[in-house]
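Journal club side-thread
Mid-discussion, someone asked how the predicted structure for our own chain would compare to the paper's figures. Pasting it here so we can look after the session.
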Amino acid sequence: MNDSDESGGFFVISVAARLLNVHPQTLRYYERAGLIRPSRSKGNIRLYSTNDLQQAQYVKRLVEDLGVNLAGVDVIIRLSERLRQLEEENERLRAALTPLQDGGSVRR
């Protein structure tokens, strides 16, 4: 199962599609494009976590509201993730630099 999902709730494709107001084939299409990655049961049934549903909702919004194609959605998702990583790294570096600045031992 998906360890990153804190709620513990999982939905089969028909329920997930109904919650998102899309056809189940749309979710399969998103999965084939690599935009969502639902876990699978032992019987190979797709199980969508709440995180998967949020990701699918984000994809749906980009496609329907902004007119982005799936290749563009993939680029947006990857760039957003990279930006998040860089922001976290920046914060770690700032936190490491603060004691040096306070002590006056920063070289320029």
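Post-session note: The longest helix spans residues 70-103.
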